[in-house]
Design brief:
heterodimer, A: 283 residues, alpha/beta, Purple Acid Phosphatase, chain A, domain 2, seven-stranded mixed sheet, five-stranded mixed sheet, B: 229 residues, mainly beta, Porin, 2 helices, 13 strands
Chain lengths: 283, 229
């Protein structure tokens, strides 16, 4: 009887680990499908045959739209975001993770909602929900990479944009070393440097979701100070916030998910090399 | 005479350990050492500890200091300890961190528990503010954080040797966010009364509460504890 009692909690844990609902997969508490290094390696393999994009604009002022946490599902807010970006002549739209719930059917809905490349260039980054239910394979087959650069070239200067994969709660050592090298070798050649990733680097408020370990966060903050990273834009928290530390502006976005009372996105303005931003909540 | 009487009632412990490990941002292996001195008199204990980075990307050799005041008490028959601590970590050339908090811990024959809260503030060093001409955004205060440890030992806690496992977000000079638990296997052996040797293996996770668990790092610890009197 005693042995049976001892086995019960373990059996309960195993059942929980093997079970899932439509939103969470509880095995993720113990194990993910691919680790950060495996996803990074696949992203880099894709980057090697698909060069980083450079957007050239004839004006010194340009606009980038940024959203996070659409958790598709449905695409009412997502469609509004793309429509608004196109109407306002944004040079690109960056989507910083949790774009889907990880299910293949949701990836298809999300992909179908993307505007034509001639209308708007889009840059997706994976979030933790995107890799649930073996979702990274969907992300990788549709978008190829979650770790990459892109550039915006204006008559006065070129700005560097870095997209990072923090879907697993860590960059992993390969991606961290890559980022460190990019900042050391490439950052000095560019006017502004902006980083997009899903997980929050600053914990703006008490939430139950994970940020990377303190050792990783400190190492990243140190890199950002040393290499004068101007902005780090994240989602994950579902609530907009802003703080400055060490010369870097840390911004968190409202979730764009349909049905969220404060659903919103962000407009990033670059005017003669000066950065400003504006949060926009859907009507 | 009074001093001798006080000495008989008091206990002085020295503990030293070495850590060898790596993690996703350590850029290779790291080696750290720490020395802890504790002085106990009656129900009160004062603990002071230092950490030294022997091999890491941190340029500071002296990388951390911690002071803790402990008071033992009882509720009915249950023995508990209340702790208040302050910790200062010289994390890098540009960022230092201060942490303070309170915890309460207790143990039974095979289990020990710790629960508490801490408040973390990180700030830029003078090198950072001067070299990068920063006068705003020089300090970050975080919200409260939950500290926890639950440990199981195979043998009763006072056995000559013991081994077990712990789940925690707290180590000597590191307090993870409550959402980043660490797993530690431990073993200890008391050579003779004043000297105990111990070893620990720690595994650090990332992304557990993102429900996408990944590995962050690991380290091995060897240490000794010496009860001087």
């Amino acid at each position: 009887m005693g042995t049976i009692l001892n086995i019960r909690p373990l059996a309960g844990l195993l059942i929980l680990a093997c079970s899932s609902c439509d939103i969470f997969e509880f095995r993720g508490f113990f194990l993910s499908y691919e680790n950060a290094n495996e996803r990074f390696t696949q992203s880099m393999a894709w980057n090697n045959i698909n060069p980083y994009k450079e957007i050239t604009t004839g004006q010194d002022n340009y606009l980038i739209y940024v959203m996070a946490d659409s958790h598709t599902g449905t695409t009412y807010n997502l469609n509004y975001f793309f429509r608004n970006a196109i109407e306002n002549n944004a040079v690109s739209a960056v989507m910083v993770g949790d774009l889907t719930t990880g299910h293949a059917v949701d990836y298809k809905v999300f992909y179908d909602a993307l505007p034509d490349r001639d209308e708007l260039l889009t840059f997706p980054v994976a979030g933790n929900h995107d890799i649930y239910f073996d979702g990274w394979k969907q992300f990788h087959s549709l978008f190829g990479t979650s770790t990459y650069l892109f550039y915006v070239k204006t008559p006065e200067g070129t700005d560097l944009f870095i997209c990072l994969d923090t879907a697993g709660g860590t960059l992993g050592d390969l991606q961290y070393n890559w980022l460190s090298k990019i900042l050391k070798t490439q950052r000095p050649d560019y006017r502004r440097c902006i980083i997009f990733t899903h997980n929050n680097i600053l914990q703006f408020r008490k939430i139950a979701t994970t940020t990377p370990n303190p050792e990783e966060l400190y190492a990243l903050k140190e890199l950002f100070i040393e290499h004068r990273v101007d902005m780090v834009i994240t989602g994950h928290d579902h609530q907009k916030d802003y703080r400055e530390f060490g010369g870097t502006k840390y911004i968190s976005l409202d979730a764009l998910v349909d049905g969220y009372k404060f659903a919103g996105f962000m407009k990033l303005m670059v005017n003669d090399g000066n950065l400003s931003f504006e949060h926009f909540n859907l009507p | 005479m009074l001093f001798v009487a006080q000495m008989i009632d008091a206990q002085l412990n020295i503990e030293a350990h070495n850590d060898l490990g790596r993690n996703n941002v350590s850029e290779g292996m790291f080696i750290k050492s720490a020395v802890t001195t504790s002085y106990r008199k009656g129900n009160t204990c004062l603990v002071y500890a230092n950490q030294f980075d022997l091999k890491s990307h941190n340029p500071h050799f002296f990388s951390g200091a911690k002071v803790r005041l402990t008071r033992a008490f009882q509720i009915k028959t249950k023995a508990l300890e209340a702790n208040a601590f302050y910790m200062y970590n010289l994390l890098s050339r540009l960022i230092h961190e201060a942490n303070w908090g309170v915890t309460i811990n207790t143990e039974s024959q095979h289990f020990s528990y710790l629960l508490g809260t801490n408040f973390r503030t990180s700030h830029l060093t003078k090198v950072a503010t001067e070299n990068y001409e920063l006068d705003v955004g020089t300090k970050l205060r975080e919200k409260w954080n939950l500290m926890y440890r639950i440990a199981y030992s195979l043998k009763p806690n006072n056995n000559k040797w013991n081994t077990g496992v712990a789940l925690t977000n707290v180590d000597h000079f590191l307090i993870n966010q409550d959402t980043n638990p660490m797993l530690a296997l431990h073993a200890r052996y008391r050579l003779n009364f004043p000297l105990t040797l111990y070893t620990e293996a720690w595994y650090k996770t990332a992304g557990v509460f993102n429900i996408s668990a990944d590995s962050f790092g690991f380290f091995f610890r060897t240490g000794l504890q010496w009860e001087l009197f």
